[in-house]
Amino acid sequence: MIQIGTYQIDTSDPVTIAAIAAICAVLLIVLLLILSLRAAARSARVAAPLMGQVGQLAQTVQGLGQGQSQLTGAIDSVSKSQAMTLQAMEVRLAEVQQQMAERLHDSALKTARSMSDLQERMNDTLHGSSEKTTKSLTQLQERLATIDRAQTNIEKLSGDVLSLQDILSNKQTRGAFGEIQLNDIVSKALPADSYSFQTTLSNNKRADCLIKLPNPPGPIVIDAKFPLEAYEALVAAETKEDQARALTALGQAVRVHIRKISDSYLIEGETADGALMFLPSEAVYAELHSRLPNIVREGFAARVWIVSPTTCMATLNTMRAILKDARMREQTGQIRKALRQLHRDVEIIGEKAGKLETHLRQAGDDVAGVITAATRAGKRADRLDNFEFEELEPEGQAPVVAITEPAE
Predict the structure, then answer these.
(1) Which of 141-155, 200-214, 378-392 has the lowest mean pLDDT?
(2) Integer Cα distance of 8 and 6 in angstroms
(3) Which pTM was predicted?
C-alpha cells in the first residue's frame, strides 16, 4: 500500500501495476528522447529518418498520457468506492454491534429471569422435599412406635400362650378352662335364673352346669371335658400306625367321658333323659365327627350329646325358646287378666270420647250463633252510620241467640 496525499494506492492491484509499468515506460522514453536530442546535434542528419519515429513516439507518449489520465480517474473512482465501502462497512459494523449488544442484553435478562425461576423452583423443590422428608420421618417414627407396641403385644401374647400351655398341660387347670368357657357361653345365651353352676345332685355328683328346663324334658346337665393329650398325640403322629394308635386312644378317652356322664348325670325323675358333653375345642369336635363317627353314635346311644362352643350356643338358643314358651304358658292367666283390663280401659276411652264429641258439637253451635249475631250487629252499625233508620227492624223482632251451658 502506497500513500500519496489523500490517495492510497494498492500495489497488489493489477491496474496499479499496469499504471506503474506505463509510467516507467514513459520515463524511459523521455530519457531516451533526451539522449536522442543530445545526440541530435551530432547526428541531425542521421536522426532525420528517426524524426518520423520520434513523432510516432510523441503520439504514443500522448496516448500514454491520456491513458495515465484515465488511470488516475479510475484510481480516484476506486478510492471513492473503497471509501464508500469502508463507510458502509463501518455503519453496518456499528449496527451489528448495536444488535449484538441488544441481543446480549436480552439474553442476559432472560438468563437472569431463568436463573431466578430456577432458583425459586429449586427452593420450592427443596422445601417440598424437606416437608416430605420430615413427614416420612414422622410416619416412620409412628410406624416404629406401632411396631414397638406390636412387639410388646407379641411378647405379651407369647407369655399368654405359654400360660395357656401351662394351663392346658394340667388336667385340673384344663378342666377349669373348659368350665370357664362353658360358663361364658351359658351366661350369654340364657337368663340368669334358668341355669346354675356346680350344682350337686342327689347322688352327690357335682354338675358343671344345670339348665333348668320345664318337664318335659326336665333339667339338663352340661359337663365340660377336654381330651387334650389324646388329641395332641393324634396331631403329632407321623406314620399311619402312630395315627391309628392315637386315634384309638382319642376314641377311648371320649368313650370313658361318655360313660361317666351317662352314669353320673342321668337320674330318673330329677334330670332330663339326656345330657350334654361340652368340648371347648372345635378342632377336637371336628376330628370326632370326621374320623370317629362310631364314638358319636355311641354317645347318642348313651343319650349323651357331644357339643362344641358353636353347637352349644345353638342348642342353648333352642333351650331359650323352650323356656320362653314355658314361661308364657305359666303366665297365661295374668295375660288374660291384663287383656280384660285393657278392654275395660278401651271402653272407658270410648265413653269419654263420646262425651267430648257432644261438648265439641255444642261449642261449635254456640260459636256459629255468636258469628251470626256479630254479623247482624255489624250490618246494623253500618246502617246507623249511613242514617238508614227506616230500614231498621223493631227491637222486639230481633232474634236473640241464647248461649247454653255445655251438657255434662
Answers:
(1) 378-392
(2) 7
(3) 0.41
CATH number listed for the domain at residues 173-330: 3.40.1350
**Domain ranges within the chain, ordered by starting residue:** 173-330, 338-397
- pLDDT tens digits for range 291-320: 888 988 988 899 998 888 888 888 888 888
